[in-house]
Amino acid sequence: MRFWQSAPILLVLANLFWSGNIVLGRGVAGVVPPIALAYWRWTGAFFVAISFAWPYLKRDASTMLEQWPLMLVLSATGVACYNTMAYIGLTGTTALNALLLQSVNPLIIILWAFALFSERPTLPQATGILVSLLGVVVIAGNGSPTALLHLRGHPGDIWMLAGIVIYGAYAALFRHRPPTHPLSFLVATMGIGSCMILPFYLGEIALGASIHSSWEAWLSLAYIAVFPSFIAYLFFNRGIELIGAARAGQSMHLMPVFGSVMALLFLGESFRIYHAVGISLIAAGILLASWKTAPSLAPQRGPRP
User: Quick one: DSSP state of residue 144?
Assistant: First the structure.
């Protein structure tokens, strides 16, 4: 299937769905407690995906059990920690700050690849990161460099950045996952991650936090369980398979772009010249970082499903 072989399409869609996750995560803050949101996101995604993955899961279960320490690490970094910390962060920071912080994702992934595997970023990669980050700054600063000086830090920023750092480890380690079908691996990490979150969710309930039931809350949970969880992770994992963690990570610069468009559509904000400038810079940065000039830019050899 040609669609499944196209990393650009898969990565664009993954980041579009993740952008919606951030917008909704901020929108339901105060309605759905953050740990409850993380728990039901992955529990719901697990039950959505398991019917598709069951034949592969039965076949691959023994393979994943053989590498259970790595499965625990991948489930903790890619599912449990990152998402829970992000939702906690969204209760204490603005959507603008959250989207801006996402732009450091590719840099964090490259740094983890260097720390874990001694991979040095190439000049195109480093240049692409800087150009894309400049585009994010243009959008976040409304076209004015001094505008960013008026953005105040929020406690949630620390939670968000810590989650991003942890997720970078997942993206860098993903190449060494067990040689399984993508669906069986995804469902396994969803289930394990959900179990990891459960004790904290029960603690949140014990402290008196609860979901304020409404159709908006449940509809948001349904979207988050299906699109940014099951579909986006499946697409992003496949993107890493096709072009490697470092290059796939560059696509995360699209999240602030999509977030700006969502603000335009749903919050009534005006589209201005600096939006076009920022989007152009981000696209140019992604192209630069994807330029094949060295063997290290190719997908890393390792187990394949």
Answer: -
